[in-house]
Amino acid sequence: MVELLSEIIVKLISSDVFDKGKILDVGCGEGSHLNQVIGKLQKKTRIKFDGVGIDISKEGIQVASKEYPNNVWCVGDLAKNPFMDKKFDIILNILSASNYSEFNRIISDNGILIKVVPGSNYLKELRKLFYYKTDKESYSNEKVLNHFNNNFPLVDKEQIQYTVALDRIDLENLIKMTPLSWSATEKKVKRALDIGINKITVEFTAMYGENGHKKL
Ligand SMILES: C[S@@+](CC[C@H](N)C(=O)[O-])C[C@H]1O[C@@H](n2cnc3c(N)ncnc32)[C@H](O)[C@@H]1O
């Protein structure tokens, strides 16, 4: 995913125009995505990026500040963030809630917003087991995409899909972590473990827009 994000950024920014920029990860969790994206951008461009991450989880920010001290990390609510207007050239919003009025306020002129959401095949093996023949068996991110386009000028979107090999412990951790299991019955969760899924599909859509771009 970080490779895709860095490619989108490189495609949209012009290194002739600026030699340093500010990148914000909203809902950054434990910070590894922001850190990796900046690492990739350092290799692909001559722009020096300052990274800032914000998350409402104190625990996530504690991990981020310890692991990646070169970036700035803050605990805060994305809907009431402490940043000044037009401060960021790039805003990342990965698998996290959004607040477009704040994104529009803090993004610079011509700044880029990239939002990553699950695709319809994301964890499809678990979705099938937990929600077989229910309305949750399939998922579409179309509403999120439309919401983005109604609130920020959408330029394009890209998909990535891959599979990840799992052993039983990974599977147990994944099942505990994913909201997909939260409303599944205990019987179905047990069945998923017993069946022993050994690989899982991951699919993401990265939708991106450019401030000042003409709306589609
Ligand atoms: C699924 S995690 C994704 C974390 C990270 N972006 C990643 O991809 O690894 C969603 C994150 O959004 C954060 N979050 C939820 N509501 C938030 C809010 N109102 N303000 C800031 N962060 C929030 C959570 O604490 C969590 O770290």
TrEMBL record:
Keywords, alphabetical: Methyltransferase, Transferase
The keyword Methyltransferase belongs to this UniProt entry's keyword annotation: yes
Pfam families recorded: Methyltransf_31 (PF13847)
GO annotation, biological process: methylation
PANTHER family, A to Z: METHYLTRANSFERASE, METHYLTRANSFERASE TYPE 11 DOMAIN-CONTAINING PROTEIN
Protein name: Methyltransferase domain-containing protein
This protein's record includes keyword Transferase: yes
All residue ranges annotated as the Methyltransferase domain in the record: 20-107
Recorded GO MF terms: methyltransferase activity
